[in-house]
Amino acid sequence: MNKLESMAVFVRVVDRGSFSAVAEEMRISGTMVGLHIKALEEHLGVRLLNRTTRRQSLTDFGQVYYQSCRRILADIEDSESQAFALHQKPRGKLRVGCPVSFGVHALSPVTAQFLIEWTDMAVDLVLSDKSMDMADEGLDVMIKIGELLHVNTLVARPIAPYRSVMCASPAYIKRAGEPITPEELCHHRCLGFAHPIAANEWTLQREGKPVRAPVNITMTCNNGEALRRAALNGLGIIMQPEILLAEDLQHGRLLPLMSEFQPLAKPVHILTFANRQQLPKIRLYVDFLLKNFSASLYALNLE
């Protein structure tokens, strides 16, 4: 007998609790249902069901085998659905998670272009600087900035690194002077992003080597745009993503500092669930992001 068919019969018997109910549902005889169960037991060399004239119950091994069969049959069904979907036009809604600054200045405009080209698609864009769990948030795709941890069930696709820039307004530099070395930062007013663990130092790099610089944090905030506005008002020195500050740098509203000491770039990845990455709508969107984010994100924002 076909082993997969016998496994399907076995699962239905456990779910329905009756040979006759399964026979009627699958349009086979009760005898055939019994033969499927018997074939599995003979193949495995162990009893799966304890049967009496009134009811049947799972043996200890039967319980384990039942769970395995359910997973196997579900995986097969999911794979077949994905294969059938490959021949269909992508449609439906995607739920996409992303940090705020990246989402506003990079992902949102690219997603808008995607939706213009693919009119049967919709995107629910979830922006948050808090750590997001893809399963808990019901996300199909997530942009992760920083090092990857615990991604065993996910597929990670790298895109352009996320670069930051250290800068200040001309008014602040005129009033407080321009720092030349990292050691001077502790004598300046600095604006810091609020993390769960407060950071009183910034990590820079010079010729590829990390340099830790103690800083005097005058203002913290959990929103990069608020820090940007404070810097534009001349409050202090800011170190934030280039995509957030690009236009201000381009028009001279903010001036870059200490060109020899650059903030460390952070890796950026597109995350999807391994068992869903080939769904047409997910594959199409991810490929679109990979195409648009393959170059510098800073260059993207300045175009």
TrEMBL record:
Gene Ontology molecular functions: DNA binding; DNA-binding transcription factor activity
Top-level taxonomic group: Bacteria
Family classification: Belongs to the LysR transcriptional regulatory family.
Coiled coil: none
Domain HTH lysR-type, first and last residues per copy: 1-59
Listed InterPro entries: LysR-type_TF_proteobact-type (IPR058163), LysR_HTH_N (IPR000847), LysR_subst-bd (IPR005119), WH-like_DNA-bd_sf (IPR036388), WH_DNA-bd_sf (IPR036390)
PANTHER family named among the record's database cross-references: HTH-TYPE TRANSCRIPTIONAL ACTIVATOR TTDR-RELATED, HTH-TYPE TRANSCRIPTIONAL REGULATOR
Keywords assigned by UniProt, alphabetized: DNA-binding, Transcription, Transcription regulation
Organism: Klebsiella variicola (strain 342)
Name of the molecule in the record: Transcriptional regulator, LysR family
